[in-house]
Amino acid sequence: MKSLKLRIAVVLIALISSIYVVLTKPVTLGLDLQGGTHLVLQVDIEKALQDEVSAALAEIKNKLEEENIPLLSAKRDGKNIELLLLDSENVPQAVEMIKDDYGEMFEISTSENRILLKIKPSYVTKEVDRLAEQALETIRNRVDELGVAEPVIVRNGKDRIIVELPGIKDPERAKKVIGKVAKLEFKEVVDVARTPDELITKLKGTIPSMATVAVKPSPFGPKFFLIKGDKEEKIEVKNLEELVRKFGGEVPEDQQLLIQEIKNKEGKVVGYTFFIVKKEPILTGAYLKDAYPSTDEYGMPAVSFELNSEGARIFKAYTSKHVGTRLAIVLDGKVQSAPTIRSAIGARGQITGQFSYQEARDLSIVLRAGALPAPVKIIEETTVGPSLGKESIEKGVKAGIAGLILVMLFMIVYYKLSGVIADLALLMNVCILWASLALLGATLTLPGIAGFILTIGMAVDANVIIFERIREELRKGRNLFSAVEAGFSRAWGTIIDANVTTLIAAAVLFQFGTGPIKGFAVTLSLGILSSMFTAVFVTKVLLDVIVKYKRNIFSI
């Protein structure tokens, strides 16, 4: 008696709690139901490795110079480096020095005064995994800053990342924020030119007499033209360095050329300023502690930043010695601003650059999340509209209700009063499953709805096994009470076996699936657990109540 009352109390508490959660807490809908954007990103591992090799080359050259080892030439060929020393006697010393710092990265071979550094396959394998994981973490941080509910961000293969953004209202903005490299650097300004002619002249180049070099903005960057009289001849160049070389100029090895875009009030690029800067940065975004949108002294949108203690120390030491010179703030290879240093700068600073308020907010997000270790490009994009998702929900709900009604009718016709009890347990199962999804913050997807519907069939399947066992016991002549007890105990092993194997399959789907497949696995797993509770425990409680108090109305 006490046991039955306790079990009835458990059923009532579970039912009331589930109804409360269903009424007060909504279930999060997946990308395929509420609409959103599905992106497949590819990390440019090759570019990142080449950048690493370039950085290693610069460091090796500095070390050789410090050790007074004369160098005739040093060049990078893809992911390999070739060094030509002035004196072959210095080769052993140079090799030892390179081994100490870059032994894990390069295989080193020599020939007279020549040293060849070839990147190791083992290093490439390790770096591919590290770069992809770092890109994944950076993208996840940026998406979190965007405030997208229940995003899916997972690796796919060695260099691809799948990003699903359910309910995103501005997919274009999201793509810009996710894909921006956000490599922040502070560099010393050597010189500034307002025109291409001035830049070429400063670097010892010569423009033909009675001619000038014009620059015109385009969506893909500046385009250059040589104008002679009324004729305009397009100059095909990859970058500013190549433009300078076309006219006989030369950029010093420790310097590089950068541009700053000049925009009008509408944000359209109308011109450029050309900067000659030191190649080696004074500071990078790696020392950034925080970044947030603000306004400059003229009330225009800007981004304020705060450096960590090490970054503040380096920045203060440099700016205190270079008062009166210009400092270029460079983001992804473009000069955002180049203020004159008026006093020593410590931990705080500001980036200006004709931003809109939205651009300032987005730049703050990507700077806080950190720079991507390599460029990423979108190789696949799918956008699901809210109307399509709404249609999927409507069809899924109709299918679920239709399946529920058919199953319930079958159970009533075939098992009579016991079928009604199974239907009550089934309705409770649906309520508990929905409440579980809401309570755990699980995302409901279209395959998840399929899992929901499948759970309905699996829930009554357990009842069918139990009821058939009870029928067998009654045919053997057992009384009603012992037949019910034996039916449940004999059916229990079969029910456990069937549900455990399904749970294992769901776990595999969850582990190796992505997006909607995981949604199916979650719904199926929760459905199995709730159906085992309702189909066995709840049904047993209801049958025990009938057997104890209304045995005369029992039918099966």
UniProtKB/TrEMBL annotation:
GO terms for biological process: intracellular protein transmembrane transport; protein targeting; protein transport by the Sec complex. This is Protein translocase subunit SecD. It comes from the Bacteria. It is found in: Cell membrane. Keywords: Cell membrane, Membrane, Protein transport, Translocation, Transmembrane, Transmembrane helix, Transport. Its main location: membrane. HAMAP family: SecD_B (MF_01463_B). NCBIfam families: 2A0604s01, secD. GO terms for cellular component: plasma membrane. It is a multi-pass membrane protein. It comes from Phorcysia thermohydrogeniphila. Residues 376-544 form the Protein export membrane protein SecD/SecF C-terminal domain. Forms a complex with SecF. Part of the essential Sec protein translocation apparatus which comprises SecA, SecYEG and auxiliary proteins SecDF. Other proteins may also be involved. InterPro entries: Acrflvin-R, SecD, SecD/SecF_arch_bac, SecD/SecF_CS, SecD_1st, SecD_SecF_C, SecD_SecF_C_bact, SecDF_P1_head. Residues 274-374 form the SecDF P1 head subdomain domain. Part of the Sec protein translocase complex. Interacts with the SecYEG preprotein conducting channel. SecDF uses the proton motive force (PMF) to complete protein translocation after the ATP-dependent function of SecA. Belongs to the SecD/SecF family. SecD subfamily. The chain crosses the membrane at residues 399-417, 424-443, 449-470, 491-513, 519-543. GO terms for molecular function: protein-transporting ATPase activity. Residues 133-190 form the Protein translocase subunit SecDF P1 domain.
